[in-house]
Design brief:
The protein is α+β, with helices and mostly antiparallel strands. The protein has 19 helices and 26 strands. It starts with a strand and ends with a strand. The chain binds 5'-O-[(L-methionyl)-sulphamoyl]adenosine (MSP).
């Protein structure tokens, strides 16, 4: 059993939790849940950073004492994580005695070892970042992060001899390529270290700032906020009397956003080295979310309350979007449209439909104690696809590559959806002679759902639990995530509405699929961009309409019989308010040919006709040169 100790940054209490904080905390939560699933000993720490100039200022502006103010906001963070289902084992506050004690011990140790001296320094300071900026880092005279004016601060203070660790740190980074990941951030830290490293001012005079931990060797000074804050990772687990945290420190990994790379990549390892405390194992750095191109941080103004969208669309959907849309290490752009698109396509359509189709079919056929029919190639392919997905998830999770892990699980979901289409259990169910094959297909489906109930657990904990409950499964373990061993079909309860589809507002002019159980409005023009490989999954073909008739009792639907190459199929299109059936016969239209069948007003539809819509007028996509039906549209 390995041990995994993961920390998030401790968040400043001068603002309420927002999407950015939620992103880091959710990533950490997914990682910890994954390690628990793998059977590891896991410890997950988050908390709040409560000292410093800025917090004292905000509290004063609110007419409160800093402690009363910090108590209030720390409680909001705690409650936020509880509501989001975050599974942290501890929540540390820098105003707690257990933390103050360790900070003072470490300071005294460094002071006694001659690592701290008294001196004077003047430089450009950002109160937002609570740090000095070097001439090189300053952009147009402003803080590069907050774009606010810097203050020239000159005062007598205590300094940590950080400069003497410059060569040591460069060597450590060169010898340990995985110390900071992704690599771009390791390179960025090596970049900082190409400039001479300054000593670090680690105190503030109490005459100017009262709100901090007093230096143990000079109580006219309080500890500089970063020196205080970074030590939380250590103070939370260094009580020798605490069984739960014993032996954790050697395994610590941090996850942070790129904004606080320098304190974590430079100050922190040099502090640890000087204090004789083992270094952290790995620093994992993610990029920044932006909203409409501008950075989403409290100081820039466009704060997004994490709950606004989680409450609207559900916690799992919110988690999924954050984990799926951000390439770990790179920046990402947040929009509600892109969120809703992902929810509809990946969660409602791919996963939700699969869960509901599979459980409906299994519930209708009933449990089977022993499946006798041997497996076929199609069943074996599903088992292989599951094994591939699990291996890919394991590889991706080593590097916090959540988007890759989810991509691999969705490849599996895609293969199971295709398996349902091609094995057509609804057709097998009509023929008693085919019952043995039906049982085998349902067994493979139950097995696949069981697999999803496990591997989705770190990413979509609520949905995964619902899937497991529907199948009567117990606590999940990664070890049990194997498809191909099940020989019975369990009794299941039907799953419906795992992720309800969200109706999107029509954009001004859009290409809109007409038909077939999609119930989906057109996608907005501002929707997230997709890679060409996503587009290539859609098989668009020219089709010739052979016959057309109204679907009884429906105002909107026409039932078409169409030819696609050699094949004739039935398709339902929502065009009856715009075209007479006779208008369509003989026309060549464009269809989505590889869509899962759907039943609409009792008619099974196999495909979707494309049309453009504007201001209530609909126009079918046709050809401007004649081509045979079945021709590929690309
Ligand atoms: N208190 C310090 C951290 C001390 S750790 C010893 C701090 N606090 S903070 O409240 O400003 O939180 C910064 C962190 O919040 C980022 O590193 C990141 O984890 C998260 N994020 C804040 N805004 C974010 C985005 N727009 N996008 C992604 N993550 C963001 O710095």
């Amino acid at each position: 059993m390995s041990t995994f100790y993961l920390t998030t940054p401790i968040y400043y209490v001068n603002a309420r939790p927002h999407l950015g904080h939620a992103c880091t905390t959710i990533m950490a939560d997914a990682m910890c849940r994954y390690h628990r699933l793998a059977g590891d000993r896991v410890y997950f720490l988050t908390g709040t950073d409560e000292h410093g100039e800025r917090i004292a200022q905000v509290a004063a502006a609110a007419g409160k004492s800093p402690q009363a103010y910090a108590d209030e906001i720390a409680a909001v963070f705690r409650e936020t994580w509880r509501r989001l289902g975050i599974t942290n084992d501890d929540f540390i506050r820098t105003t707690e005695p257990r933390h103050r004690k360790v900070v003072q011990e470490v300071l005294q140790r460094l002071f006694d070892a001659g690592e701290i001296y008294f001196g004077e320094y003047g430089g450009w300071y950002c109160y937002g970042c609570e740090r000095f900026y070097t001439e090189k880092e300053i952009v147009d005279g402003k803080c590069p992060d907050h774009q606010t004016a810097l203050t020239f601060v000159k005062e007598k203070n205590y300094f940590f001899k950080m400069s003497k660790y410059q060569d040591w740190l460069i060597k450590h980074l060169e010898d340990n390529p995985a110390f900071i990941q992704p690599e771009r951030y390791r390179n960025e830290v090596l970049g900082f270290l190409r400039e001479p490293l300054q000593d670090l001012s680690i105190s503030r005079p109490r005459s100017r700032l009262e709100w901090g931990i007093p230096l143990p060797f000079d109580d006219k000074y309080v500890t500089y906020v970063w020196f205080d804050a970074l030590l939380n990772y250590y103070s939370a687990v260094s009580d020798p009397g605490n069984e739960k945290t014993r032996g954790l420190w050697e395994h610590v990994e941090h996850i942070i956003g790129k904004d606080i790379l320098k304190p974590h990549g430079v100050y922190w390892p040099t502090m640890l080295k000087a204090a004789g405390i083992p270094l952290y194992r790995r620093l994992n750095v993610h990029g920044y979310w932006s909203l409409g191109g501008s950075k989403m941080s409290k100081s820039v103004g466009n704060v997004v309350e994490a709950f606004q969208l989680t409450d609207k669309y559900g916690h799992d959907a919110f988690r999924y979007f954050l984990l799926r849309e951000m390439n770990f290490g790179l920046d990402a752009s947040f929009s509600e449209e892109a969120f809703v698109d992902r929810l509809n396509a990946d969660l409602a359509n791919d996963l939700g439909n699969l869960a509901s189709r599979a459980t409906t079919l299994i519930a209708a056929a009933g449990a089977v104690a022993q499946v006798t029919e041997p497996v076929e190639d199609a069943d074996r392919e599903i088992a292989t696809s599951a094994a591939d997905a699990r291996a890919a998830v394991e590889l991706a999770m080593r590097d916090f590559a959540f988007q890759k892990a989810l991509g691999a699980i969705w490849t599996f979901i895609g293969s199971v959806n295709r398996y349902v289409d091609t094995s057509a259990p609804w057709a097998l169910a009509k023929d008693p002679a085919k019952r043995p094959r039906l049982e085998r297909v349902l067994c493979t489906l139950a097995d696949s759902l069981g697999f999803l109930g496990i591997v989705l657990d770190p990413f979509l904990p609520d949905a995964a639990r619902k899937i497991r409950e529907a199948l009567g499964q117990g606590a999940p373990t990664l070890e049990a995530a194997v498809v191909g061993r099940l020989t019975a079909v369990p009794r299941v309860t039907k799953i419906s509405g795992l992720f309800p589809r969200i109706d999107t507002k029509p954009a001004s002019t859009t290409l809109s699929p007409q038909g077939i159980g999609q119930g989906e409005g057109p996608k907005g023009e501002t929707a997230g961009k997709i890679p060409i490989t996503d587009f290539q999954k859609v098989d668009l073909r020219v089709a010739e309409v052979l016959t057309a008739e109204r679907v009884p009792k429906s105002k909107k639907l026409l039932k078409l019989s169409i030819r696609v190459g050699e094949e004739t199929r039935t398709l339902v299109a929502g065009v009856a308010e715009h075209y007479e059936p006779a208008d369509l016969v003989g026309r060549k239209v464009v269809i989505v040919a590889n869509l899962q069948p759907a039943t609409l007003m009792g008619v099974e539809s196999n495909g979707m006709v494309l049309a453009a819509e504007h201001g209530g007028t609909l126009s079918l996509l046709t050809l401007d040169r004649d081509l045979p039906s079945g021709a590929k549209v690309k």
